[in-house]
Structure formats: C-alpha cells, structure tokens
Design goal:
Elements: H1 2-16, E1 27-28, E2 33-36, E3 39-43, H2 56-69, H3 84-96, E4 101-105, H4 108-118, E5 124-129, H5 134-141, E6 146-150, H6 155-165, E7 169-175, H7 187-196, E8 200-204, H8 218-222, E9 232-236, E10 246-250, H9 252-261, H10 263-266, H11 273-287, H12 290-306, E11 317-323, H13 325-337, E12 340-341, E13 344-345, E14 355-360, H14 367-380
Parallel strand pairs: 3-12, 5-6, 5-7, 7-8, 8-9
Antiparallel strand pairs: 1-2, 2-3, 4-10, 9-10, 11-14, 13-14
Bound molecules: pyridoxal-5'-phosphate.
Length: about 375
C-alpha cells in the first residue's frame, strides 16, 4: 500500500545521509564497561557521571524499598499514585536546591514538556538557546506559544530579539551545562536580561546537578543563583544520580500552577514509590559525595592533558567535533576496534556539519582507562 511506502521512505532518506540510528544491545557492568556479545569495551558514553548507577548501597536501598512499596506507581499522582515517599522526595529536592517546592516527573523529558501546557499560552514568546535540549524545544513546539531561538550563548543576539519582539509575556529557557557541548550557560547575564525584560527564566541543569557545586547543587549552586534569580529549575535523576525520575522546582505558586495544568504530570503513571524513597537516600548520598566530585575534576584534567586537541569544554562532557557524518561514524568504529565505547552524535541532535564523538567522563573511570582513551583519540582524530 502507498501509505507504507511513504512512511518507509523516511528511513531510506536517512540512510542516504548516513543518519540512521543504530541501537547497540549492551550489558553494563560495574567496571565502567559495556559488553557486546563476547567483547568488552570501556564505556565513555554513559551519563552516570559519579558512578552511582552501580553503587552497592543504592542497590540495597532500592531492593528494600521495593519490598516495602512494590514495583509500580500504579496511577497518576492526582489519582492514588502520590505517596508519603513522593511528598518527602519533593521536600528533599526543594531543600537540596534551595527552593520552596518541587514537582516530580517520570523523566526529564516529561518535566521539561510540562511547561508547554502550564506556563506557556498563545501570548507567550519562548526564547531558547539554539543548543537547548530537544525536550525544551519540544515543550515550546507543543505549546501555543511562539518559539524564538538565539545563537548559542550569544547574549547580544538574545537582547536584540527581545527588543525586536517586545513580548508582553515571555519565558527564557536554557540548559545549564549543554548536553552535547559541555559548556555552561551564562547564568549571570541571563538573569540580568530576564529582569530587564520581565521574562521568566528556566534552567534545565540535567548535567550539572550532583556533578558540580559544593554539595552537588549544580551550576546554580556553583554560581550562587537563587530561586529569585532563576524561578524555575528542572533536572533529571537519570544521569549523575544513577537513578531515574525528574523534577521541576520553584516557588509554591508556580509549582501549584504546574500541578494543576501540566499534562505530562497529570496524564501519566507516577514515579514508583520505591524509586521516590530511594531517591531521598541518594540525594543525601550525593550531598556527601564531595570526593567523587573532586575525582571527576581530576579525571577531566587528566583527559584534557592527555588529548592533543582543545574541545572547548571544561566539564565532564567533552565533544570531539569531526563535522562530516561518515567520518564521524568511521572514527567511532576505529575507537570501538580499540575497545572504547564512544557513541557518535549526528544531526538532528547536533547542528549540520558538527557531528561528533561525545565523551562522557565519570568519577569512576580509572587513570588507565583515561590514558587508553586519550592515546586512542590522539591516533584516530588528527
Ligand atoms: C539537558 C537535558 N534535559 C533533559 C533530558 C531528559 O532527561 P531524561 O533522560 O530523564 O528524560 C536530557 C537527557 O537526555 C538532557 O540532556
């Protein structure tokens, strides 16, 4: 039937551009390795930046909580899926990030999407950095608002767009640490601009929370930004916290608006209570994990010293930009042949001609593993 041919042709088009995505069936172990078939590879693609996903203490807490609460959230939080574990977790998040309140979501994607139906209406202009994560872009796209994107970290461009559109109602959105480039948003300047134009500032600090800041409070803690400065903070527990689930945190009234209106909050099954209860314990652990954050800083420095190339990032996300899609795939295969699992990132995740190997560094990587990585990269990429 014609309809099938029309649908299938979208993949043929991607194949012609070397843009099809390949899943790898992997098994992950506690030595920072993935196994594919019989073959072991050192894993430099995981967002488990502190190595907590395999932490034996967390595994034990999770098992105990499953025994206590069962396995499922069972219904939406507004029906009967909201337990005392969820409330305590909301409070723990609010305390941890210095905010009045927080709302829980099953994933960071859903947390960001929640803005679409709660905060943005047809009078709202949404200003976003061009390198914002897809979930923020989708929040704007699925809303009734107008999306305007400014050049990456270009505050002059942002100001000129705000001047041009003179929005009566606007929201400004950015990643904290950018997920594919590893550089940081210019929070102080964004705060100033958001005040000048009375725009609501939202920061998604998915990659900053737990990894940076004195107690792991992320980029906002590192740069001393309060709830007054940045009214909405979103984050996921699927990365450095080694778990899953996510949150939006802010003042009580904003959080209440979201609870009333967010479709990705209302129409989905709650985070399992066992996950919520474990996350309370994990937040306490993260606060105390200064040594892991220090080790991560050491590992970033070791990587940068060993690599014969400047990446433009000083965080645990290190982009090795190659540009051409096929060349990036070839480099990825050569690194695989050397026993390294380093996944290629291509458009539309990143801009055209900026395909890259995205290296994720973890506090759990050993000096030997890092040396193998930089030696191999120096050979493969020149
Ligand atoms: C900046 C950013 N926000 C949100 C998400 C989505 O988080 P989750 O994986 O929990 O859906 C990601 C993860 O890919 C991300 O990089």
């Amino acid at each position: 039937m014609k309809i099938f041919e029309q649908i299938y042709s979208t993949v043929t088009h991607l194949e012609n551009l070397s843009l099809t995505r390949q899943r790898q069936e992997v098994n992950v172990d506690s030595e920072n390795r993935v196994t594919i078939g019989e073959q072991h590879y050192i894993n430099f693609s995981s967002n488990d930046y502190l190595g907590l996903a395999q932490d034996p203490r967390i595994k034990e807490w999770y098992k105990t909580n499953i025994d206590k609460y069962g396995c499922s959230g069972s219904s939406s939080q507004l029906i009967c899926g909201y337990t005392s574990a969820h409330r305590q977790l909301e409070q723990a998040i609010a305390d941890f990030f210095g905010r009045e309140d927080a709302l829980l979501f099953s994933s960071g994607y859903l947390a960001n999407l929640s803005i679409a139906s709660s905060i943005i209406d047809n009078k709202t202009f949404v200003f976003q950095d061009k390198k914002c994560h897809a979930s923020l872009i989708d929040a704007a796209r699925l809303s009734d608002g107008k999306l305007v994107r400014y050049r990456h970290n270009d505050m002059t461009h942002l100001s000129s767009l705000l001047k041009k559109y003179k929005p009566e109602k606007s929201i400004l959105m950015t990643d904290g640490i950018f997920s594919m480039d590893g550089d940081k948003a210019k929070l102080k300047e964004l705060i100033e601009i958001s005040r000048q134009y009375e725009s609501l500032l939202l920061v998604d600090d998915a990659h900053g929370i737990a990894t940076i800041g004195d107690t792991g409070g992320g980029l906002l803690q590192q740069q001393s930004c309060s709830q007054q400065d940045i009214p909405l903070l979103t984050g996921t527990f699927g990365k450095a916290f080694g778990m899953s689930g996510a949150f939006v945190a802010g003042d009580k009234r904003l959080i209440n608006v979201m609870q009333q209106q967010s479709r990705s909050y209302i129409y989905t099954t709650a985070l399992p209570p066992a996950t919520a209860a474990t996350l309370i314990q994990v937040i306490a652990l993260v606060k105390e994990s200064k040594k892991l954050r220090e080790q991560l800083i050491t590992n970033i420095a070791t990587f940068k010293q060993g690599l014969n190339k400047e990446t433009g990032s000083d965080t645990h996300i290190q982009p090795i930009i190659i540009g051409n899609n096929e060349k990036t795939i070839t480099a990825g295969k050569q690194l695989m042949d050397k026993g390294l699992f380093t996944v290629c990132i291509r458009p539309p995740t990143v801009e055209k001609n900026s395909s890259r190997i995205r290296i994720s560094l973890s506090a759990a990587h050993t000096a030997l593993q890092l040396k193998k990585l930089t030696d191999s990269l120096n050979q493969v990429i020149n």
